[in-house]
Amino acid sequence: MSILSSMRYCLGPPTSYGPIYIALAFIPFGLFFDFMDGKVARWRKKSSLMGQELDSLADLISFGVAPASAAFALGLRTPLDTLLLSFFVLCGLTRLARFNVTVSTLPKDATGKSKYFEGTPIPTSLGMVGAMA
User: Fold this and answer.
1) Are the beta carbons of 69 and 3 closer than 8 angstroms?
2) CA-wise closest residue to 62 among 98, 12, 26, 35
3) pLDDT by residue (tens digit) across 50-61?
């Protein structure tokens, strides 16, 4: 919804800020759902490689593509801006791919959650969203 709201803002009149505020408001919901899907999986004691990959894809969209789309809609549209926004999304992608490859070797607590992360988790991009709001 955030990406579509960003597109709606780009297509609408420049004085209508509603869609971009909606786009920025939807991004933190991704953090809530990211937290809850892990909680539910650990509560049910069920996990799968497919679920892990889908979680990473959802994280990439929620915390990589959606903030980059909102930034583009807000005016970061020069070739350098698009290069930097693409780099931001690709950094998120490589971070998630690296986590997925190394997660099996990381120590886990009693609930099955990794004890620590290597690198910066992609949900920290919410700080960028807060700056845009």
Assistant:
1) yes
2) 26
3) 988 999 999 999
